Amino acid sequence: MPTRSSSGCRLCGQPITTQPLTLGVLPVCNRFTRDGRVDHSWALDIVECEACRLVQLREAPPPEIVAPAVPWIRYREPESHLDALVERLVSFRPLAGRALGTGPFEQPLLTRLAGRGLQIESLDLEEKGCGGRHPYLETWQARLNAADLAAPAASLGTFDIVSCRYLIEHTSAPVDALQALKTLLSPQGLLLIEVPDSSKFLAARDYCFLWEEHSCYFVEETLRRLAEESGYRVLALLRYPGALEDALAAVLTPAEGSPAAVSPRGSSSLFQAYRDDFAPTRARLRGKLATLAGPDGDRIALFGIGHHAIMFANAFGVADMFALAVDDDRDKAGFFPPGFAVPVIGSDRLLADGQITTCLFAVAPHIEGKVREKLAPLAARGVEFRSIYAALDNAITKDLAP
Questions:
Q1: Alpha-carbon distance 332 to 244, whole Å?
Q2: What pLDDT score does 181 carry?
Q3: Which of 70, 279, 360, 394 is most buried, by the most CB atoms less than 10 A from its CB?
Q4: Which CATH class is domain 1-267?
Q5: pTM given for the model
Q6: Which of 107, 147, 103 is nearest to 125 (CA)?
Q7: CA–CA separation, 323 vs 358, rounded Å?
Q8: pLDDT (0 to 100) of residue 399
Q9: What is residue 7's predicted lDDT score, i.e. its pLDDT?
Q10: Distance (Å, rounded) from C-alpha 391 to C-alpha 152?
């Protein structure tokens, strides 16, 4: 399966000539180690197609580079909107009898469809026997192609509803993936594609949402174009709001004929501003954190060590400024986050450290209140809490204006 887009856009195939946002060669975010060595890195250049305006990685890493080396890497995707989403799905096909989930985030949706009387099936695309690695999203998405879906299509038959949640943004060949999924659909079947919407973090100029595992960064316009390029008609394009990024759900059905030609529109002002603001933001943030870290570099903690925190630290070049990397996930304890000089510790160690004067949060907004309660003794002695997320009022980047 192709993994690179140097020769053209992943969506429309047109040459990409725009200046990239270059983050440099960064550690792969899920490669936690016991000794702090960086064993896998990737050059992250983010580009926007001038023809269709899909923001994407110029070169996406092959699955073996980003497949987890530890068994406990896991991701959660939003579920609170699924009752409303199922209501809309069923309204399009009230007589639907069979539904198929094609990824690791399908069970909450399938459970709701089963409650509506549908027969449900799950597609298992995990690669077996992968030499000690732990297959997950990247090995799964790489098998969304005609060759790998031929056998499931033959054995399972077709379905009235096929769901693919939070996988398409990972694939390097999204048009091929949607075309391959068509073999699992009945003639009037519905394909549900759900992806994170990128417009909020682009507008906020938040760089921790970039990730070597996401080949594509969709907004409404490009998700609609993906559907049309892949031979579908869009029945509905639904948005479900989130604090940092919304969920976009496209309800599709197979279409006849070729997609309409789209005239090149040029690079968007949204991406241009996002690209151009990175270098000055990075320089100002490094200066600010160097001051906060103090002469001995022992005053800043980072709480919540997921891929957003790791991207924030490495893309901005500030990983070495954190005296403590804090997370209460016991699986992470003692592991070094990629690019960090310190291993993960629990919040008890943070509470006992009298040198910390600033704690950066890399936790979801709905969790931050509970974290603040847990760390109340720090606030009582004057420790400042700030967020890594640029869209939030307490973001560490808020007061970095030149």
A1: 24
A2: 95
A3: 360
A4: alpha beta
A5: 0.94
A6: 103
A7: 10
A8: 80
A9: 66
A10: 42
